[in-house]
């Protein structure tokens, strides 16, 4: 199986998400979506490769907007518990 650890720059580990083991897991998600969300995925059924790309893009978006090297980081308030 591909290495699970995150990359040094914080971006997605593309090799991990495109490995055969990960794609097999995405195939289970695809089957579940087609079984339980028929009306939402009927016109354009997802593929395991498409789901992997979606996760890669989501992680990359989060890194671009919320990462330590983002150009316009949001003001983040952490809750304080007394």
Mean pLDDT: 84
Number of helices: 4
Percentage of residues assigned to helices: 40-55%
Give the biggest beta sheet: none
Number of separate strands: 0
In N-to-C order, the SSE pattern is: HHHH
- Which outline best applies? extended
Which short descriptors sum up this protein?
82 residues, mainly alpha, MARR_BRCT_CHROMO, SMARCC_N, 0% strand, Chromo domain-containing protein, 4 helices, extended
Q: What would you say this structure looks like, in words?
A:
- This protein has 82 residues and is an all-alpha fold.
- It has a domain at 14-39 and 46-57.
- The protein contains 4 helices and no strands.
- Helix 2 (20-36) packs across helix 4.
- It is extended, with a radius of gyration of 17 Å.
- Residues 2-82 form the Chromo domain.
- It comes from Helicoverpa armigera (Cotton bollworm).
List the helices and strands and how they pair.
Layout: H1 14-17, H2 20-36, H3 38-41, H4 48-66
Précis, in short:
With 82 residues, the protein is mainly α. It has helices at residues 14-17, 20-36, 38-41, 48-66. The chain has a domain at 14-39 and 46-57.
């Amino acid at each position: 199986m591909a290495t699970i650890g995150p990359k040094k720059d914080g971006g997605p580990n593309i090799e991990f998400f495109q490995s055969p083991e990960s794609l097999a897991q995405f195939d289970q998600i695809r089957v579940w979506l087609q079984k339980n969300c028929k009306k939402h995925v009927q016109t354009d059924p997802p593929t395991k490769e498409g789901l992997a790309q979606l996760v890669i893009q989501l992680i990359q978006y989060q890194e671009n907007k919320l990462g330590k090297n983002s150009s316009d980081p949001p003001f983040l308030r952490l809750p304080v518990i007394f």
